[in-house]
């Protein structure tokens, strides 16, 4: 265990990254987390987390993030606040270039997360948390008994609409085509749950008085405009995994997610992918944290193989 070459360098200090760090250091490995902003990633943007086991009455996303960082550092994980700019993942040791110099690691855990694709409309950023949301599992409860719309037509949009239908008075699904991109089996479920689909429609404007009050829609064939009053708009038009550092090195799926199974191993030996940037069915704090824990097991296994039983 040296400072000059870490057993594992973890890029990204969200729940996936800090859980990987916690489990790695508790296994006796030296671990460095490189984080460009502050601990917590997307989680820190969440005002209140209610669905992380043990959150009780709810816990602030920022507070949970700090606890995860402190928990990992308590056992010896280090944090470097820097932006990783380049990663030579095939080298041995692996070289990570940051805006504060180079760091070397025998293995690397990629934990840079993903971010939701935005509609790109005026006011969208400012209305985030004031009517605009990107995750029904995270923010749906705030719209209990209200009228909401979901923009999108893929499996996540439909899953969001179905989840919201259990909570909200009325749910619209705004889809720019005349058929769903989501599995056709969903159509029946949408109808049975009273979800109204607005076909051939796209959102062209966000209406608000400081909080979202509705959206302007355009019919895609005629460009005829109409207004839809709603308290919330859930944008579910895809996510963008933050995988630029691994571009051209590790295998990705057609949507750009790093291909890694439940072992979190990527296509490059000694490189692991945890959290939202990995191919997986559900992207949440708890699943990112679970990946981090699992990664430590395979990091250890890799190091044992690398050093023939003496990591
Ligand atoms: C508004 C919002 C609300 C949410 N609410 C909930 C909720 O209530 N419950 C729930 O379970 N999930 C919620 N989620 C989803 C949850 O936050 C994510 O699934 C989870 O944070 C993913 O963790 P991660 O570790 O994979 O990545 P992230 O949390 O995205 O963390 C990635 C980290 O990597 C850093 N990073 C990226 N690139 C670099 C680089 N080049 N160099 C250094 N650092 C880098 C980023 O700064 C970031 O800190 C919410 C998401 C959002 C956006």
Automatic annotation (TrEMBL):
Keywords of this entry: Flavoprotein, Oxidoreductase
UniProt key word NAD: no
Span of domain FAD/NAD(P)-binding: 6-292
Pfam family, one: Pyr_redox_2
InterPro entries the record matches: FAD/NAD-bd_sf (IPR036188), FAD/NAD-binding_dom (IPR023753), Ferredoxin-NADP_redctase_2 (IPR050097)
Name under which the protein is recorded: FAD-dependent oxidoreductase
